[in-house]
Amino acid sequence: MDKPDYYEKFRDRADLFEEKFASYFPVLIFGILAGAVQTAKKSTCGFTIAELITWGLLLVAGLAALVRLRVLAYVHRSLAWYDRRSKQLPGEYAAAADPFAAGPALAKEIKELWEKQERWFALEKWLFRSAATLFFVGLVSLLCVRGAQLF
After folding, report:
1. Contact (CB, 8 A) for 133 and 29
2. Rounded to two decimals, what is the model's pTM?
3. Which helix or strand (DSSP H or E) is residue 115 part of?
4. Cys-Cys link to 127, which of 2, 27, 62, 68 (CB 3.0-4.6 A)?
């Protein structure tokens, strides 16, 4: 008896988890930023520069995570367009997925789309790495600033 193929099921589930993480990550960042701002203790000379820098790091991390969501929406919309466009093509191309079978104009259009997609994917990856790095640095610096205030 053959084992059932769970690839589609597990891939869909992984996509769901990734979408949830992408959506909740900015919420987490802005939630920590809001808590840090609300619980800040103002000293006689105002807030410390380290605390302001920490807030700036968290703010930029949150904004990068939000921009990443927008980039992901654009990428998915473009992929949906590509999928619809490939189904509108004449006979053999729809079956073989060979852009050159559909004619040079359409082949050029599809090639340009994939080149754009590669740039957008690179931007999305860079935004995620930036947001994650800034979040980590901001969180560590927040803990250091708040820990230093205890002494």
Report:
1. no
2. 0.73
3. helix 104-149
4. 68
How high does pLDDT run on average in the chain? 80
Looking at the domain assignment, is residue 2 inside a domain?
no
- Both tokens of 53, joined, read 């820098």
Dihedral sign (CA 19, 25, 26, 28): positive
Domains of the chain: total: 1
What is the reported pLDDT for 92?
Answer: 45
Please give the C-alpha separations between residue 150 and each of 41, 49, 144, 146, 147, in angstroms, as whole numbers: 11, 17, 10, 7, 5
Say how far apart CA 108 and CA 131 lie, in whole Å.
35
Question: Does residue 1 lie in a domain region?
Answer: no
Q: What CA–CA distance (Å, rounded) separates 69 from 131? A: 12
